[in-house]
Write a structure and sequence with these properties.
11% strand, single chain, 5-stranded mixed beta sheet, 7 strands, 2 domains, 9 helices, alpha+beta, elongated, Hypothetical Protein Ta1238, Chain: A, two-stranded antiparallel sheet, Beta-Lactamase
């Protein structure tokens, strides 16, 4: 089947039926705008690192294709939009808004290429909305499509802000990690037997404190060496302890110190959202060092933050004993 048919050379086209209409018809203009929006979404989707956003963008593309079909055949109910789709957009807008600082001034796009492109996409959606109002005066269009496109513009406005801030966070994190990496501290990994001895000491201390905890140790590269789970420890503590140990090695500082740097307006604010969310910003993770060399990291989880810090520091102080 050939791509070109030559039927549109005179400025006419059809909407999937035998009826020919001018390409200047409002319906054709709206279809073109929706197609343009879909292409912008595809480009942004290809640049996104966030899998959740990628899936959301792909689903929106599917809905816009359905909208285009609805314009060509408005009587076919399978191409109508459902209220749940609008609700999903509103829930997503609320979710991303809750992670952003309060909006106190007008947004000027251009802080980074990706967020600027999402703002371009937002403006295309606004033009779609205007064109859709014009088309609805010409034909019977399912009412919820106008509400969906309206909400879609709000969604892209919010996502543009979200992406802009998190790209900035990633850049700040990268710069700070480079500074840490250039400090020139030597690494020397701890073996399994040494790890077992240290964990046994920490367990004894935990029992004295009346705690049931999970202890995790990683080597100087952040790879797990050993995890010890005391009877009665919380299931969630396993993953948290490992992340605390990893964080201490990855950033070469305790998670208690990191908590200060990651506070709002701090140089590492938002770091917990990076690195596949393996970074923890509450106490209980410490760097294990001996004679100026990094041996690994120790993570404790199961007590209060203060109790986890006490046990982690106890382990760090008794390294090599």
């Amino acid at each position: 089947m050939k791509v070109y048919t030559k039927k549109g050379d005179t400025g006419n086209t059809d909407l999937g039926s035998d009826t020919r209409i001018l390409k200047s018809d409002h319906r054709i203009q709206l279809l073109g705008l929706l197609d343009e929006a879909n292409s912008h979404i595809g480009w942004v989707k290809s640049q996104l690192k966030d899998e959740t956003l990628q899936k959301e963008f792909h689903h929106i593309q599917e809905q816009l294709m359905k909208c285009m079909s609805s314009i060509t055949n408005p009587s076919y109910s399978s191409w109508h939009i459902h209220q749940k789709e609008i609700q999903n957009l509103e829930e997503a807008i609320d979710f991303y808004t809750d992670q952003l600082p309060a909006l106190q001034k007008f947004i000027i796009p251009g802080e980074n290429p990706l967020s600027a492109q999402i703002h371009v996409l937002r403006t295309v959606i606004r033009r779609c909305e205007v064109a859709m109002v014009e088309v609805s005066q010409q034909m019977q269009l399912h009412d919820l499509w106008k509400a969906y496109v309206n909400r879609l513009a709000d969604y892209f406005f919010t996502v543009a802000r979200y992406v802009e801030i998190y790209v900035q966070i990633e850049e700040k994190v990268r710069i700070n990690l480079e500074k840490i990496e250039n400090q020139g501290i030597e690494k020397k990994s701890m073996g399994l037997q040494d790890a077992k001895r240290l964990l046994a000491m920490v367990e004894k201390k935990a029992k004295q404190m009346g705690l049931n905890i999970v202890m995790a140790m990683v080597d100087s590269h952040g790879n797990p060496i050993a995890v010890h789970v005391m009877d009665g420890a919380l299931i969630a503590s396993y993953d948290i302890a490992l992340k605390k140990a990893y964080t201490a090695v990855a950033l070469r500082m305790s998670t208690e110190e990191l908590a200060t740097l990651a506070a709002p307006h701090g140089p590492l604010y938002g770091i917990q959202e990076t690195n596949q969310e393996k970074i923890v910003i509450f106490g209980g993770g410490v760097l294990l060092m001996e004679n100026g060399q990094i041996l690994g990291g120790l993570g404790i989880s199961g007590g209060t933050a203060e109790e986890d810090i006490i046990l982690a520091n106890y382990g760090a102080e008794n390294i090599g004993h």
